[in-house]
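Hey, sorry for the delay on this. The queue was backed up all week. Below are the sequences that define the complex (chains, strands and the ligand SMILES where applicable).
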Amino acid sequence: MQQAAAGGISQDKMAALYDSAVRDTIRRFEATGSPIITDGEQTKPSFATYPIHGLDNLAPGGVTIPFADGHTRQLPKLTRGPFQYRTYAVSYLEEAKKHARVPVKQAVISASALSLLYPPEGIPGYSRDAFLADLLREAERDIRDCLARGAATVQIDFTEGRLAIKLDPSKQLLRSFIDLNNRVLERFTAAERARIGVHTCPGGDHDSTHSADVDYAELLPDLFRLTVGNFYIQLASEANRPRVLRVIKENAKPEQRIFIGVTDPISSQVETPEEVRDRVLEAADIISVERLGTTDDCGFSPFADDTSTARDTAFEKIRARVAGTRLAEEALDSGKRRAKTASAPSQREKRA
Ligand SMILES: [Zn+2]
């Protein structure tokens, strides 16, 4: 991709490379046994900037995000309206569905992340309110098209949630982000929102993070105000997982499903299935297993130029996630069988 950006590879050659990368990812992802897969975001310039890549009303010099290792990422800024996406996530979904045999989850960027494109000094003739109206319409379409095209779920990447507390400890920024995203979500029915989820993490780029030092307990109560059915929550790399799990239990609404991260893409150490199993059992002790699922803590390379994690490592970690989740299911099932033989089955056991 860097070569293509520098003009070293023709459009046709690039399209062929993209196509083979998507095919290979889907083939290897399905081989892990994962019941739901993604395209690995092989052809996005980044998880955050795919809708705006190539727009002619952007200039450099927008919001800068500092990472713990000292490197930064800088967003562009909008120079004039109207604001419109150039690429919608459904285009990636359509490619993936050509090759996938199992359901596909599609990631989209949050409206709150793209709200950072509007410069604080304003744009003459294009108010912030006019921008937000355009942004809400585009963010809605980005999700709606994926649902219509048969995405198993649509995951809104909300990595700026935890970062927002670092930037503004009063939490006003975080709450404005959540309110903005809820303005997108209120355009969907309850049944549609059950197929929508939110991903939270401390950012992941070049094996570093931007907000791991922000306490989850500061984020989670507000996070669960997002009116979605599913949460994909980085957890494997947390120092005190039981504490985070208890905060989740206290704050998630009954209809919200919790997918906990059981592998850490920042670490090069591949988890064993037994480690994953133990993380699931630890979670099942605190959160009811009926609403519990597993995921990876984050994407393995959310920016296209990040080569810090090898493909083989990524798939080994996914394989461990799938195998470990299965081991946990077996352990939980045999635990239930033991309880059943020890006494007459209670209502609760029958339901489970
Ligand atoms: Zn993430």
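Residues 159, 199, 201, 204, 298-299 surround zinc ion (CB under 6 Å).

I'll add it to the shared folder too.

S.
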